[in-house]
């Protein structure tokens, strides 16, 4: 990571690029999917996934509380951890809404 990530869009682009580079995938051919993570109806992070050819699945998890991104390769092994130096802005409202009971 060259410059500190400040916005949600910058984080999503960085995660997408990092995951695709791990398996030499073309990012324009394999979109990034996101899903909010909730704990006791409270937003606590986001799961990122890229689905490649031959059932390859690459993933990352951003934890809101600690502001850390964990990256996982196609075997499910963590290959990188990034501590973000500052809180993100522009997190989509749909992620921050609680779960329905």
Describe this structure in words.
With 101 residues, the protein is an alpha+beta fold. The chain has one domain (8-96). The protein has 2 helices and 5 strands. A 5-stranded antiparallel β-sheet has the order 1-2-3-4-5. Strand 2 (42-51) and strand 3 form a beta hairpin. The longest helix is centred in the first third of the chain and has 15 residues, at 8-22. The N and C termini lie far apart (38 Å). The relative contact order is 0.22. The mean pLDDT is 91.
- Backbone CA Rg: 14 Å
Order of strands, widest sheet = 1-2-3-4-5
**Percentage of residues in DSSP E strands:** 35-45%
Describe the largest sheet.
Answer: 5 strands, antiparallel
| Poorly predicted parts | none
What average pLDDT do the residues reach? 91
Q: What is the structural class?
A: alpha+beta
User: N- to C-terminal separation?
Assistant: 38 Å
Return the domain count.
1
Number of helical stretches of at least 4 residues: 2
Shape: globular
> What percent of residues adopt helix (DSSP H or I)?
10-25%
